[in-house]
Amino acid sequence: MNTSEVEQSRTDARESEKPAAEAPVILKLTNASRTFENGAQKVAALGSIDLEVREGECVVFFGPSGCGKSTLLNLIAGFDHPTTGEILLEGKPVEKPGPDRLMMFQEHALFPWLNVIDNVLYGLRRQRKFRFRRRLRHVRARELLQMVHLDEFEKASVHELSGGMKQRAALARALAPDPKILLIDEPFPGLDALVRAKLYAELQEIMLRTHKTILSVTHDPNEAACLADRVFVFTGRPGKIKAEIRVDLPRPRDIADPKLAEFTSRIMSELEQGAKA
Question: Whole-prediction pTM value?
């Protein structure tokens, strides 16, 4: 972002951000756990989880590999069901996937036979308000491509895009149906540091413009501190919440900002304590 865009984002943040206590709870998990069974063998992937997420928050799940972070995201998405407990979205049980919760995966999952704008349009064609309104679909798709700085590449083939551009296109496609919650499952690990930094900035710009509720999974403490309003640090398997860390810094945040170091240190300290427990 240039200087004027950064200043506008800061203005937007001051005008639009409310204390978390004022925002309504959009997602609630009560005693949610997941145990997988393979014949007589049982594997407890996720321990009992209790948490609330408020509308417009960015919540990051951080923990060691295999602690159940992605399992939790799948439960919230409706791809799987908890063994115990319940998950409520706006007071209603989550029983299956729906357009109110969309996932951005580790791999971009774009359709290689479609160009960039057609990938974004794909999710809109099934939405009732866009189904018979072709022009409106294209307006929405182009707005999103402009938001992720791909408006000059709308006709490009997927194979012509860099890794970072593919992830930005995937983000635009996930946002297209205007889900209530965007779920992000580690989409940045294969990208170099400079590209990741640009994506962090763009994602925060989108947060400020759309006020979207975001739940993300990461192994990177710097990423967690940069993006999150709250970080939930998990123990090893079966994953349980070891700590909740609130990152009370204004947006947009720079991944290189020394102020993030304090939060990164706290996140790692909680992770190490959880490993010793």
Answer: 0.86
Q: Is residue 17 part of a domain?
A: yes
261 is a domain residue: yes
Q: Give dist(CA 177, CA 92) in Å, integer.
A: 20
Name the residue range of residue 267's domain: 3-100+179-276
With respect to residue 156, please indicate whether it lies within any of the assigned structural domains: no
Total domains in the chain come to 1
Treating both helix axes as pointing N-terminal to C-terminal, what angle do 163-175 and 116-124 enclose, rounded to 10 degrees? Answer: 20
Query: Using 50, 70 and 90 to split pLDDT, how confident is the model at 122?
Result: confident
Query: Can you give the CATH number for the domain in which 226 is found?
Result: 3.40.50.300
**Whole-angstrom distance, CA of residue 103 vs CA of residue 175:** 10
Q: What are the CA-CA distances from residue 31 to residues 43, 76, 82, 174, 213 (Å)?
A: 17, 13, 9, 29, 22
Q: pLDDT tens-digit profile of 16-51?
A: 444 455 789 999 999 999 999 888 889 899 999 999
Residue 235 φ/ψ, nearest 5 degrees: -80, 175
On whether residue 260 sits in a domain, the answer given is yes
- Copy the structure tokens of residue 125: 């064609």
pLDDT in tens, 182-216: 999 987 777 788 888 888 888 999 899 999 999 99
